[in-house]
## 1
Amino acid sequence: MTIELIYQYIFGAAILALLCIVASVFTRRIGAPILLVFLILGMLAGEDGPGGITFNDFGLAFLFGNIALAIIIFDGGLGTQKNTFRVSLKPALSLATLGVVATAAITGYAAHLILDLSWQEGLLIGAIVGSTDAAAVFGLLRSAGLELKERTSATLEIESGSNDPMAIFLTITLVQVLQLSGEGNQGWTILIELVRQMGLGLAIGFSGGYLLSRLLKRLSLPSSLYPLLALAGGISLFGITTLWDGSGFLAIFIAGAILGNTPLPYSNDIHKFHDGIAWLSQIGMFLMLGLLITPSHIIPIIVPALAIACVLIFIARPIAVFFSLLPFHFPWREQIFIGWCGLRGAVPIILALFPSLAGLENTQTYFELVFFVVLVSLIIQGWTIAPVARWLNIEVPRTAKEPECLLLTIKQEHDKALLIYPVLTGSHAVGMSPDRLPAAEGSQILGVIRKGILLENIKREKLLADDQVVFLATTDARDTLGRAFAPAARVSSLETTRFFGEFALNPDAPLQDIAKAYGFEVETDSPTATVETYLLKQFHGKPVVGDQVQLGTVKLVVRDIKDDRIVSVGLKLGSVTHE
Amino acid sequence: MLIESILTLERSKANIEGGSKKRLIETLAKIFADNIENFKVDDVYHSLINREKLGSTGLGGGIAIPHCRFETKGETYGVCVTLNQAIDFDAVDSKPVDIIFAMLVPENAEKSHLEFLASLAEIMQNQSFVERMRAAKTDEDLFQVITQKTG
């Protein structure tokens, strides 16, 4: 390669990345899935578009694709919060395992019929398109300004973080089965492979994640090296697991989740860095996949691919979701939404490269077919997610934004941090006396800075806008403090009232007393049943904020939840608003 | 909806002393009993307090609408007071309360009475209305502010 050519490559790549970032602004306006734009830009730059770049190196694409995927999944793990496990871990795991198998089987059977392939090859296609992409879903919801009930959002998030390993595993196994076809007992091969992939992935993920978190706590490094240490550690775990034929994606996801839930020095930096690098990976990967495809080759397979995409979207995913969620009693609206949120992303396209690298036949068709299926899913589901969420009525009012605060983690004191909150005009804190701030257990107020000077006797003062309040607090205390310093809510109190109701009820108030007060009749197991026990029973022990029950002309709405207990319930009177 | 259909000048008190939540409810019960025939302070007080035990009727933003069913022979009665100093009322947003509109609805409270309560709650969240109530210094001013809004 000449020097001149190298610089051309650098320039070209940078311009493409720049275009992608700028284009993301416009997609937000029109509500289009951002990944679709990256993909289309890649196709435009490719051999059939004005860019005219020929890129057909499947091996290189596979290498970059794997690294990018590993980083994206690691970032997904880092962002997975333990407290979302409360309502969603089991349903999400059921979707990620049973759901993927069911989706793959149904789609695979359809592919077997439509394309007239052997059942193994059909299943391979089903497995390749088996996993969903959360980043796509959440990007869309966020840009539409929607907030979902926790049961739905957490389930989708954990599902899409953890179903990639399953789809990857199924694909690899089926590729091996196809290679070995005829030799030995295939049932056994699949089973042994499953145990090995999952077992190693789990073992290395947990042990490696633990070791990595120890290392991050122990090593004394310049602060900007911590995120890099986390990244290098994560990818090393991915590498070693795949080398031993384990599921590297499962390992790196678990390691990420462990790091994300351990208090670490500079954990903010680690999160920010990985957020950025995950974006870069998304952009790079989709651009590359857009370049790799030859759009003119897709034309002959459009009809069968469209048929498979429709089976996947309208039949396989809803059925798989229905059965996977059966034991968890999800409200039907939320179930339909989860069924619709089966957005496919980069994982299937990368997986479509596996068969060709393993030396199977028909590989070009696999790639183009899968590419088109993903495209259809991005367009149909991606474009309609926000309207569907609104139509199904599963949003909750946005909570007050977490206020910006300066956070300094104290080395050797990983669960304690110095927090400095600015007092914003319109927040609850204005006018409060500093010692009356809702200090959570374990938080201490250290001082108030006004116009650059530390106030002397804070007990006699009242907080003014633009003061800075310094706390020494545990990470848990941040919730409580955050509420006091939250900027004036963007959602009006009227909007909150419309959703949660006019009045608040004590969760331990006897339900029959409320029935008497508001003139409705309700059957309870015992005369002493409280609002809380009644709601817990209605929602099978796992209520989430926003769940509601209609009783007579009033509605009970779950307002707040802490550690599996309902701490606040709203009472909504008969609707009189002209909506 | 006409607030004046349930409120009278005698039952509007501006700028009074609140004391505690309990004291305030006593005051409200007394205003009801003083101005409505056959109403006993204790009965009204206990009915209102029992409702408060189920959950605070503080709406947030410094406003509370204590209410309960009562033997009113089919009528709905209101009392409106503003306080010279806000008091703690266990409101949803834990902000102290200084505007209180108490309501007694008939025992056979049908849907329409609850709707009345709901629209009252909505009106009481109108910022400029609430500010005008706060600014009212005399009972007459307060009564006028309320009836103007809805009349």
## 2
Amino acid sequence: MQDTLAHLKRGERGIITDVSSIHIPLKLLEMGCLPGNSVELVQLAPFHDPMYLNINGTHLAIRKETAAHILIDKVTL
Amino acid sequence: MSKQINVALIGNPNTGKTSVFNALTGLNQKVGNYPGITVEKKEGICKLPRGVKAHIIDLPGTYSLNASSLDENVVIELLLNRNDKDFPDVAVVVSDVENLKRNLLIFTQIKDLEIPTLLVINMADRMDYKGISLDIDYLEEHLNTKIALISTRKNTGIDNLKHLIANYKDISVTPCINASEIDKTYFENLRKAFPNQLIYKLWLVITQDVNFGKTDRKQIEAVDDFKTKSKADLKRLQQKETIKRYQFINNVLKLGQTIDVSQAKDLRSRLDRVLTHKIWGYLIFFVILLTIFQAIYDWSSIPQDFIDSMFTSLSQWTKDILPQGAFTNLLAEGIIPGLGGIVIFIPQIAFLFLFIAVLEESGYMSRVVFLMDRVMRRFGLSGKSVVPLISGTACAIPAIMATRNIESWKERLITILVTPFITCAARLPVYLIIISLVIPDSRFMGLLSYQALTLMLLYLIGFLTAVSSAYILNKILKIKSKTYFVVEMPNYKLPMFKNVAITVIEKTKSFVFGAGKIILAISIILWFLASYGPGEQFNNAENIVKTEYISQNLSNELLQQKIASHKLEHSFIGITGRAIEPSIRPLGYDWKIGIAIVSSFAAREVFVGTLATIYSVGSDDVDTITNRMSKEINPITGGPLFNFASGISLLLFYAFAMQCMSTLAVVKRETNSWKWPTLQLVIMTAFAYIVALIAFQLLK
């Protein structure tokens, strides 16, 4: 199964592969959430939601339900 | 006179755009509203070299020209309308040095509109610290622009920026990229259909839900070809456009910017590890809240006592110095006590705005949003509702305006509807005066004062009511709306003194003057209504009372008091008050409190001023309002009017009732319908009445 951002654990990294889902707000892309960019999970709120991410240097938080639409490849360190 | 240059400041939120604005204009600025909407319009004048002046607008922060909120609409409406009197001669895009890439997105969009565009890179003082170096010449060449590298914190580069603004005509208007490549045939058709229009402007008009003077849009939709694209298709094209822009930006930055990561000292991640921690994060947030409240009450009481006694002496002084007459009475009994009622809580409001400004400026507020989102969502709110709920402790009006960045309409609506339950600063004077009258001034276990505990309890009640009504509304309201949530987590910054000071001064000023006008008007009206009356009973009061008490041989002083109260009872206000008295007697109030409650519907803080005015009319001795209230006697029981039962009932009434015209007006504007403010008014007030009724009947 394809990994999504929602599967990321704390401190893990990934490379964004696909953001074409209609459920992803344009604003997120504008903030740099684009294919090819690296993403790191900085912090999780209780219950894994929302997620505090570092996408290519931009720090932002999104809800898990949105994260589940963003496809990634996990990067093993 | 030379023409003013119109300058628009544009940029992402949290990039220090406001600092640049403050650096350019100083205190030479004013905050107004855009016509018809409540978006704050900040504008100011900046003196440029050689006597030229620039008119500067600080536009709301936005990530792109694809608007998703009212605030962002303002930006694109202005940039697309060349006939607007504020249409910029030059657009100044403000970026910070760390987030240059993200800010260049909107920069390239504005360039496509062929508006001369300057790039300001702020926080240059942090470059070494972050290991960033920039090749300015290279960037200027490839972005077709001029760049001002500045630091508002260290106050460097501002003169260069002014120089560049003055010479805006030298800036190239060549676009950076060709957006029409994302769908060549579509854009080619667009070009053919509207040969005289700028192609990128047409594209924005098609994709945005913005009001551009309707004709533009209809024209485009009238041409068959442009209906064929579905919403999803358009969104896909927008995604494509964004990706294309970032490709361009990445290519430019590859050579124009180097970041040496090993140089970067990361304070952020260390702070975040604690401040967003599952346990420590919440604990720290709670401690911060406690500190704020503690500080506000402790620190404000000294200036407040001073203001209180000052106004009392001012009243007395006016009476002594001016010749007796109607005007003196109006001044000493109507206007001065009325104004005293508002001036007294300037210290508290200023402190509240100070803390909120510091939390926002430092970047901490976003962490709170992150921490609270999950919890708030259970109640149908958003993490972003925390900001309005906290600002609501100052005033519901800015709080309701702060809901704009909540993306989901349902979550935003619920936040707007429940925010007025939060104990705002206007309730404070009412609470404080009643608490001081009815709650004993002693300490629980010799430590915690009962009065302070009551006050805390009232704040808690306000908050819990807000949250539980949100829960109920979430169950009742059947609104489908997209529920995404994106919040930027800006880097931590030491708040800049100048920014915080300007915010505190501006907000306090507008709050005090806004409320001050209402209070002044109401005080004057009330004074007239209380000083004049119809018919024999009022005009002949002296004789009537004298005849009535002729056998009792009263002292002159007592007789004068009887006359004054007889007059008041038969004045216009007394007649009105006694007409409504039956409906409020079950709550434990007399007609004077009734009048105060009715006038409170203009604004809650009017309560104290109203009672001050009513009790001042006709009495010669000047006393503090608290003393006067404690002397009031309930004519039925013979005990003091403000006792435990009626006091608690009043406190609860003020905790729940919707008594603020300005809030209702803002809710109307923000929800664009009378339905919601009407519901708020009716439901909250009815609820307040019932709770106060039950409380009084149980306690009496």
